[in-house]
Amino acid sequence: MEQSHLLDPVQIGKWNLPTRIVMAPMTRSFADDKTGVVGLDVVEYYRKRAADGIGLIITEGINPIPRAKGTFGVPGIYTEDQIKAWKKVTDAVHQEGGTIVAQLWHVGRLTHHELTGGFPPQAPSRIKAEGLVHRLHKPYEMPEEMSQPDIQEVIEQHAQAARNAMVAGFDGVEIHGAHGYLIDQFNSDVTNKRKDQYGGNQAQRLTFMKELLSAVIKEVGVESTIIRFSELKDDLPEYKWSEPEDVIKTFIVAFREVGLKILHPSTNHFAEIIANGMTLHQLVRKYWDGVIIGVGNLDVNLASQAIARGTINLAAFGRPLLANPDFVQRIRQNNPLTPYDAKQHLGALV
Fold first, then answer.
1. pLDDT digits (tens, 9 = 90+) for 69-116
2. Which residue numbers delimit the NADH:flavin oxidoreductase/NADH oxidase N-terminal domain (predicted)?
3. What pLDDT digit, counting tens, does each position of 169-183 carry?
4. What angle do CA 136, 37, 34 make, to 5 degrees?
5. Catalytic positions
6. What is this structure's pTM?
7. Which of 29, 105, 193, 327 could form a disulfide bond with 61, CB atoms 3.0-4.6 angstroms apart?
8. What residues make up the domain containing 46?
9. Cα 109 to Cα 86: distance, rounded to the nearest angstrom
10. Which CATH number do you get for residue 150?
Protein backbone atom coordinates (compact mmCIF):
# COMPACT_ATOMS: atom_id res chain seq x y z
CA MET A 1 0.00 0.00 0.00
CA GLU A 2 1.24 3.48 -0.91
CA GLN A 3 0.77 5.17 2.44
CA SER A 4 3.31 7.97 2.84
CA HIS A 5 1.21 10.99 1.94
CA LEU A 6 -1.82 9.80 3.90
CA LEU A 7 0.22 9.59 7.08
CA ASP A 8 1.73 13.06 6.77
CA PRO A 9 0.69 15.52 9.48
CA VAL A 10 -0.87 18.72 8.17
CA GLN A 11 -2.16 22.03 9.46
CA ILE A 12 -5.54 23.07 8.05
CA GLY A 13 -6.30 26.53 9.40
CA LYS A 14 -6.11 26.17 13.15
CA TRP A 15 -6.42 22.38 13.06
CA ASN A 16 -3.17 20.48 13.58
CA LEU A 17 -3.98 17.08 12.13
CA PRO A 18 -1.76 14.04 12.78
CA THR A 19 -2.63 12.51 9.39
CA ARG A 20 -4.43 13.50 6.21
CA ILE A 21 -7.03 10.79 6.80
CA VAL A 22 -10.61 11.94 7.37
CA MET A 23 -13.47 9.92 8.83
CA ALA A 24 -16.29 10.53 6.37
CA PRO A 25 -19.76 11.37 7.71
CA MET A 26 -21.88 8.21 7.89
CA THR A 27 -25.47 7.93 9.07
CA ARG A 28 -25.47 5.43 11.94
CA SER A 29 -28.89 5.99 13.59
CA PHE A 30 -27.69 5.05 17.08
CA ALA A 31 -29.14 8.03 18.94
CA ASP A 32 -32.22 7.60 21.12
CA ASP A 33 -35.05 8.01 18.62
CA LYS A 34 -37.30 9.98 20.96
CA THR A 35 -34.71 12.36 22.41
CA GLY A 36 -32.02 12.52 19.72
CA VAL A 37 -29.39 11.98 22.44
CA VAL A 38 -26.25 9.94 21.73
CA GLY A 39 -25.03 7.41 24.30
CA LEU A 40 -21.73 6.13 25.61
CA ASP A 41 -21.47 3.66 22.72
CA VAL A 42 -21.22 6.63 20.35
CA VAL A 43 -18.61 8.23 22.63
CA GLU A 44 -16.47 5.11 22.41
CA TYR A 45 -17.03 4.76 18.65
CA TYR A 46 -15.54 8.18 17.95
CA ARG A 47 -12.88 7.89 20.68
CA LYS A 48 -11.45 4.77 19.02
CA ARG A 49 -11.01 6.56 15.69
CA ALA A 50 -9.30 9.52 17.35
CA ALA A 51 -7.00 7.19 19.28
CA ASP A 52 -6.11 5.45 16.01
CA GLY A 53 -4.76 8.71 14.58
CA ILE A 54 -7.55 9.79 12.23
CA GLY A 55 -6.69 13.34 11.21
CA LEU A 56 -10.20 14.78 11.10
CA ILE A 57 -13.47 13.19 12.20
CA ILE A 58 -16.69 14.37 10.56
CA THR A 59 -19.69 13.13 12.50
CA GLU A 60 -22.76 11.46 11.18
CA GLY A 61 -25.44 13.94 10.15
CA ILE A 62 -26.88 15.84 13.12
CA ASN A 63 -30.29 17.51 12.98
CA PRO A 64 -30.38 21.23 13.83
CA ILE A 65 -34.15 20.96 14.51
CA PRO A 66 -36.69 18.11 14.78
CA ARG A 67 -38.17 19.00 11.40
CA ALA A 68 -34.83 18.22 9.73
CA LYS A 69 -35.05 14.52 10.60
CA GLY A 70 -35.21 12.01 7.77
CA THR A 71 -34.96 8.61 9.44
CA PHE A 72 -34.95 6.88 12.81
CA GLY A 73 -32.22 7.33 15.41
CA VAL A 74 -30.67 10.51 14.02
CA PRO A 75 -29.00 12.65 16.72
CA GLY A 76 -29.86 16.28 17.32
CA ILE A 77 -28.05 19.31 18.69
CA TYR A 78 -30.98 21.54 19.66
CA THR A 79 -31.61 20.51 23.31
CA GLU A 80 -29.46 20.78 26.42
CA ASP A 81 -29.39 17.00 26.82
CA GLN A 82 -28.19 16.56 23.24
CA ILE A 83 -25.46 19.17 23.69
CA LYS A 84 -24.28 17.58 26.95
CA ALA A 85 -24.16 14.15 25.31
CA TRP A 86 -22.08 15.45 22.40
CA LYS A 87 -19.74 17.13 24.89
CA LYS A 88 -18.82 13.66 26.15
CA VAL A 89 -17.96 12.70 22.57
CA THR A 90 -15.80 15.75 21.89
CA ASP A 91 -14.05 15.44 25.27
CA ALA A 92 -13.16 11.82 24.50
CA VAL A 93 -11.88 12.72 21.02
CA HIS A 94 -9.80 15.62 22.34
CA GLN A 95 -8.32 13.47 25.11
CA GLU A 96 -6.97 11.23 22.34
CA GLY A 97 -5.55 14.23 20.46
CA GLY A 98 -8.25 14.20 17.80
CA THR A 99 -10.20 16.87 15.90
CA ILE A 100 -13.94 16.52 15.32
CA VAL A 101 -16.52 18.57 13.43
CA ALA A 102 -20.31 18.26 13.53
CA GLN A 103 -22.15 17.74 10.26
CA LEU A 104 -25.45 19.65 10.26
CA TRP A 105 -28.09 17.85 8.18
CA HIS A 106 -31.59 18.96 7.15
CA VAL A 107 -33.29 16.53 4.75
CA GLY A 108 -35.90 18.98 3.46
CA ARG A 109 -38.56 17.16 1.45
CA LEU A 110 -37.06 13.70 1.99
CA THR A 111 -39.03 12.86 5.12
CA HIS A 112 -42.48 12.19 6.61
CA HIS A 113 -44.55 13.77 9.37
CA GLU A 114 -44.13 10.63 11.50
CA LEU A 115 -40.42 11.49 11.81
CA THR A 116 -40.65 15.27 12.22
CA GLY A 117 -42.98 15.59 15.20
CA GLY A 118 -46.06 15.91 13.02
CA PHE A 119 -44.76 18.63 10.70
CA PRO A 120 -44.88 18.20 6.91
CA PRO A 121 -41.58 18.23 5.02
CA GLN A 122 -40.08 21.58 4.03
CA ALA A 123 -38.77 22.39 0.56
CA PRO A 124 -38.08 25.31 -1.77
CA SER A 125 -41.05 24.31 -3.95
CA ARG A 126 -44.13 22.16 -3.53
CA ILE A 127 -42.76 19.17 -5.43
CA LYS A 128 -43.10 15.68 -3.98
CA ALA A 129 -40.16 13.30 -4.06
CA GLU A 130 -40.62 9.85 -5.57
CA GLY A 131 -39.84 6.76 -3.52
CA LEU A 132 -39.99 5.65 0.09
CA VAL A 133 -38.66 7.29 3.24
CA HIS A 134 -35.50 5.61 4.50
CA ARG A 135 -36.34 2.82 6.99
CA LEU A 136 -39.90 4.13 7.51
CA HIS A 137 -40.78 2.62 4.11
CA LYS A 138 -43.68 5.00 3.49
CA PRO A 139 -43.97 7.31 0.47
CA TYR A 140 -42.45 10.75 0.75
CA GLU A 141 -45.10 13.36 1.52
CA MET A 142 -45.89 16.54 -0.36
CA PRO A 143 -43.66 19.23 1.19
CA GLU A 144 -44.65 22.72 2.21
CA GLU A 145 -43.12 25.42 0.05
CA MET A 146 -41.03 27.53 2.41
CA SER A 147 -42.01 31.16 2.77
CA GLN A 148 -39.32 33.79 3.09
CA PRO A 149 -39.87 33.89 6.91
CA ASP A 150 -39.51 30.07 6.88
CA ILE A 151 -36.21 30.41 5.04
CA GLN A 152 -34.88 32.96 7.52
CA GLU A 153 -35.98 30.74 10.39
CA VAL A 154 -34.12 27.72 9.02
CA ILE A 155 -31.00 29.84 8.49
CA GLU A 156 -31.16 31.02 12.11
CA GLN A 157 -31.76 27.44 13.28
CA HIS A 158 -28.55 26.38 11.56
CA ALA A 159 -26.70 29.32 13.14
CA GLN A 160 -28.04 28.27 16.54
CA ALA A 161 -27.01 24.66 15.89
CA ALA A 162 -23.52 25.90 15.04
CA ARG A 163 -23.43 27.85 18.32
CA ASN A 164 -24.58 24.72 20.12
CA ALA A 165 -21.83 22.71 18.42
CA MET A 166 -19.24 25.11 19.81
CA VAL A 167 -20.76 24.77 23.30
CA ALA A 168 -20.56 20.99 22.85
CA GLY A 169 -16.84 21.29 22.16
CA PHE A 170 -16.73 20.62 18.44
CA ASP A 171 -13.81 22.03 16.46
CA GLY A 172 -16.04 23.16 13.62
CA VAL A 173 -19.06 22.24 11.51
CA GLU A 174 -19.74 20.78 8.11
CA ILE A 175 -22.89 21.90 6.32
CA HIS A 176 -24.52 19.08 4.34
CA GLY A 177 -25.35 20.76 1.07
CA ALA A 178 -25.34 17.57 -1.02
CA HIS A 179 -27.29 14.43 -1.93
CA GLY A 180 -30.70 15.95 -2.60
CA TYR A 181 -31.32 17.28 0.90
CA LEU A 182 -32.68 20.73 1.76
CA ILE A 183 -29.78 22.93 0.66
CA ASP A 184 -29.29 20.87 -2.49
CA GLN A 185 -33.03 21.12 -3.16
CA PHE A 186 -32.61 24.91 -3.36
CA ASN A 187 -29.52 24.49 -5.54
CA SER A 188 -31.22 22.25 -8.12
CA ASP A 189 -33.62 23.23 -10.90
CA VAL A 190 -35.39 19.88 -10.40
CA THR A 191 -36.67 20.88 -6.97
CA ASN A 192 -36.46 24.69 -7.01
CA LYS A 193 -39.08 26.43 -9.16
CA ARG A 194 -39.24 29.62 -7.08
CA LYS A 195 -39.79 33.04 -8.65
CA ASP A 196 -38.25 35.09 -5.81
CA GLN A 197 -34.56 35.77 -5.04
CA TYR A 198 -34.09 32.13 -3.95
CA GLY A 199 -34.99 30.79 -7.40
CA GLY A 200 -33.98 31.49 -10.97
CA ASN A 201 -30.72 30.56 -12.70
CA GLN A 202 -27.99 28.42 -11.19
CA ALA A 203 -26.24 31.28 -9.42
CA GLN A 204 -29.50 32.63 -7.99
CA ARG A 205 -30.55 29.21 -6.70
CA LEU A 206 -27.39 29.15 -4.55
CA THR A 207 -28.62 32.18 -2.57
CA PHE A 208 -30.12 30.12 0.26
CA MET A 209 -26.90 28.12 0.63
CA LYS A 210 -24.79 31.28 0.69
CA GLU A 211 -26.96 32.96 3.32
CA LEU A 212 -26.93 29.86 5.50
CA LEU A 213 -23.16 29.46 5.18
CA SER A 214 -22.62 33.13 6.04
CA ALA A 215 -24.74 32.74 9.18
CA VAL A 216 -22.80 29.66 10.27
CA ILE A 217 -19.42 31.26 9.51
CA LYS A 218 -20.33 34.14 11.82
CA GLU A 219 -20.73 31.60 14.64
CA VAL A 220 -17.76 29.28 14.15
CA GLY A 221 -15.34 31.13 11.89
CA VAL A 222 -14.48 30.59 8.25
CA GLU A 223 -11.53 28.29 9.02
CA SER A 224 -13.85 25.94 10.93
CA THR A 225 -16.64 25.67 8.34
CA ILE A 226 -16.84 22.97 5.65
CA ILE A 227 -19.41 22.60 2.87
CA ARG A 228 -20.30 19.23 1.36
CA PHE A 229 -21.76 19.49 -2.14
CA SER A 230 -22.47 17.08 -4.98
CA GLU A 231 -24.55 16.27 -8.03
CA LEU A 232 -25.65 13.06 -6.24
CA LYS A 233 -29.26 12.88 -5.08
CA ASP A 234 -30.53 10.10 -2.83
CA ASP A 235 -33.98 10.14 -4.40
CA LEU A 236 -32.80 10.60 -8.01
CA PRO A 237 -29.99 8.08 -8.54
CA GLU A 238 -29.80 8.75 -12.30
CA TYR A 239 -29.49 12.54 -11.97
CA LYS A 240 -26.46 14.22 -13.57
CA TRP A 241 -25.44 17.84 -14.03
CA SER A 242 -25.99 18.73 -17.69
CA GLU A 243 -22.87 20.95 -17.79
CA PRO A 244 -20.69 19.80 -14.87
CA GLU A 245 -17.83 22.23 -15.37
CA ASP A 246 -20.13 25.25 -15.60
CA VAL A 247 -22.02 24.14 -12.50
CA ILE A 248 -18.78 23.70 -10.56
CA LYS A 249 -17.54 27.12 -11.62
CA THR A 250 -20.79 28.66 -10.37
CA PHE A 251 -20.46 26.85 -7.04
CA ILE A 252 -16.85 28.00 -6.65
CA VAL A 253 -17.85 31.63 -7.22
CA ALA A 254 -20.48 31.26 -4.47
CA PHE A 255 -18.01 29.66 -2.07
CA ARG A 256 -15.51 32.46 -2.64
CA GLU A 257 -18.20 35.07 -2.05
CA VAL A 258 -18.85 33.77 1.48
CA GLY A 259 -15.13 33.27 2.17
CA LEU A 260 -15.03 29.50 2.55
CA LYS A 261 -11.68 27.73 2.86
CA ILE A 262 -12.61 24.01 2.90
CA LEU A 263 -14.69 22.09 0.35
CA HIS A 264 -15.91 18.50 0.52
CA PRO A 265 -17.07 17.52 -3.00
CA SER A 266 -18.96 14.24 -2.73
CA THR A 267 -19.09 11.40 -5.23
CA ASN A 268 -19.53 7.65 -5.03
CA HIS A 269 -16.62 7.00 -7.40
CA PHE A 270 -13.55 9.20 -6.95
CA ALA A 271 -11.95 8.15 -10.25
CA GLU A 272 -15.07 8.62 -12.39
CA ILE A 273 -14.67 11.06 -15.29
CA ILE A 274 -17.59 13.50 -15.30
CA ALA A 275 -16.59 16.14 -17.88
CA ASN A 276 -13.75 17.14 -20.20
CA GLY A 277 -11.62 14.16 -19.19
CA MET A 278 -11.63 15.15 -15.52
CA THR A 279 -13.07 13.77 -12.30
CA LEU A 280 -15.21 15.80 -9.90
CA HIS A 281 -12.26 16.62 -7.66
CA GLN A 282 -10.00 17.50 -10.58
CA LEU A 283 -12.63 19.92 -11.88
CA VAL A 284 -13.01 21.50 -8.46
CA ARG A 285 -9.22 21.84 -8.16
CA LYS A 286 -9.10 23.54 -11.56
CA TYR A 287 -10.99 26.49 -10.06
CA TRP A 288 -10.23 26.20 -6.33
CA ASP A 289 -6.89 26.69 -4.59
CA GLY A 290 -8.18 26.14 -1.06
CA VAL A 291 -8.52 22.88 0.87
CA ILE A 292 -10.33 19.96 -0.80
CA ILE A 293 -11.42 16.81 1.02
CA GLY A 294 -11.53 13.85 -1.35
CA VAL A 295 -14.12 11.10 -0.97
CA GLY A 296 -15.71 8.38 -3.08
CA ASN A 297 -14.83 4.74 -2.51
CA LEU A 298 -11.17 5.65 -2.07
CA ASP A 299 -8.49 3.09 -1.39
CA VAL A 300 -5.15 3.87 0.23
CA ASN A 301 -3.15 3.98 -3.01
CA LEU A 302 -5.62 6.14 -4.93
CA ALA A 303 -5.93 8.58 -2.03
CA SER A 304 -2.19 8.90 -1.54
CA GLN A 305 -1.65 9.49 -5.26
CA ALA A 306 -4.35 12.19 -5.36
CA ILE A 307 -2.72 13.97 -2.41
CA ALA A 308 0.71 13.74 -4.06
CA ARG A 309 -0.67 15.29 -7.25
CA GLY A 310 -2.30 18.12 -5.32
CA THR A 311 -5.83 17.19 -6.40
CA ILE A 312 -6.94 16.88 -2.77
CA ASN A 313 -5.47 17.84 0.59
CA LEU A 314 -7.29 15.31 2.78
CA ALA A 315 -8.81 11.90 2.00
CA ALA A 316 -12.08 10.73 3.56
CA PHE A 317 -12.87 7.08 4.14
CA GLY A 318 -16.18 5.61 5.23
CA ARG A 319 -16.81 1.89 5.26
CA PRO A 320 -13.14 0.93 5.75
CA LEU A 321 -13.23 2.85 9.05
CA LEU A 322 -16.32 0.95 10.17
CA ALA A 323 -14.59 -2.36 9.51
CA ASN A 324 -11.21 -1.21 10.88
CA PRO A 325 -11.22 0.91 14.05
CA ASP A 326 -7.42 0.60 13.77
CA PHE A 327 -7.40 1.76 10.14
CA VAL A 328 -4.45 4.15 10.54
CA GLN A 329 -2.32 1.67 12.42
CA ARG A 330 -2.96 -1.01 9.82
CA ILE A 331 -1.82 1.37 7.08
CA ARG A 332 1.21 2.45 9.11
CA GLN A 333 2.24 -1.17 9.66
CA ASN A 334 1.29 -2.20 6.12
CA ASN A 335 -1.19 -4.77 7.43
CA PRO A 336 -4.21 -5.89 5.38
CA LEU A 337 -7.55 -4.22 6.02
CA THR A 338 -10.61 -6.15 7.17
CA PRO A 339 -13.20 -6.05 4.35
CA TYR A 340 -16.42 -4.19 5.08
CA ASP A 341 -19.36 -6.55 5.72
CA ALA A 342 -22.76 -4.85 5.84
CA LYS A 343 -24.28 -7.58 8.02
CA GLN A 344 -21.52 -7.22 10.57
CA HIS A 345 -20.69 -3.53 10.48
CA LEU A 346 -23.84 -1.66 9.46
CA GLY A 347 -25.87 -2.51 12.56
CA ALA A 348 -23.19 -2.10 15.20
CA LEU A 349 -20.87 0.56 16.60
CA VAL A 350 -17.53 -1.23 16.48
1. 999 999 999 999 999 999 999 999 999 999 999 999 999 999 999 999
2. 6-336
3. 999 999 999 999 999
4. 45
5. 181
6. 0.97
7. 105
8. 5-347
9. 27
10. 3.20.20.70
